[in-house]
Amino acid sequence: MQVPRLVVFVVAVGSCVAKPNAAVTVDEVKSGNGADGERQMFSRADAYERFMGRWSRKLAPELVEYSEVNDGGAVLDVGSGTGALAFAVRDATTTTRVLGIDLSPEYVTYASSKNSDARVRFEVGDAQALGQPDASFDRAISLLVLNFVPDPRRAVAEMIRVTKPGGIVSSAVWDYAAGMEMLRVFWDEATALDPAMARRDEKEMPLCKQGELAALFRDAKLDAVSETALVVDLQFSSFDDYWEPFCLGQGPAGAYVAGLSPERKRALRERLRTRLLSNGRDRAMTMSARAWAAKGTVPPR
């Protein structure tokens, strides 16, 4: 998901100036009408790594285990981004082959540059129109992607198509409404500062609430559908380690910050600092992050 380049200048510790991204609302994401804005929200692989990629790498092994990835066979990573899930599969197995597909050429180039294992490949592709043959993978897995796909039902249908009967299709999405503390704190303070921005709060994103992914999989006629919570801890070395990645323009929160005036940015930063540090000295922080994961088995054809 990508991708005109967003130019970001970090001008001082704790401050940033960025070219504003398109103001995509949650309703546009739900309807699929905000696709161009979504691509702008995920425009730089290096910036995404600092904002969310480092936490994706913590979540990915949990999803790999939940997805029952075994040694041997082939895994498709749908929406591979900077490679967190593909590399987690690589590290958990010795012979499994992994293909990561992503809509963003920049993300594909970035992930490929970090890979030295012949079992792992990355290529440009669309989750809603996969170029792979029917029944060619043992697992099709999507990490933190389906809620941003304009038509997630179509994407799941494609994941089922390319997975062998008896294989597993799985996905995980952050619990934006309550369990992803890093973003929950951010949006609580952003909407307190400007209540009109409630329409951009990620708590209303599709598929992020308990039961929604599982319902999507049942509607797609997968067998033995189950759901679970995957929880990881996010460690921040300081307040700026928490705040500065929001200034890089990535994701809905980063796009929101990029569109703020300097005065509004400073006001939001101070609200967050007070919320997290209670006006005390800077310190390391740990926040909990919960994702809802679902999986199902591809029925006989």
Highlighted features:
globular; 38% helix; Rossmann fold; disordered N terminus; two-stranded antiparallel ribbon; 11 helices; 7-stranded mixed beta sheet; 301 residues; alpha/beta
How would you characterize the overall build of this protein?
The protein is of the alpha/beta class. It has one domain: 3-Layer(aba) Sandwich (Rossmann fold). It is 38% helix and 24% strand. The longest helix has 22 residues. The radius of gyration is 19 Å and the shape is globular. The N terminus is likely disordered.
Concise overview:
This protein is of the alpha/beta class.
What would the principal axes of the Cα set say about the shape? globular
Terminal CA distance = 31 Å
Largest sheet: 7 strands, mixed
CATH fold call: Rossmann fold
Multimeric state: single chain
- N to C succession of SSEs: EEHHHEHEHEEHEHHEHHHE
Q: Indicate the percent of residues in helices.
A: 25-40%
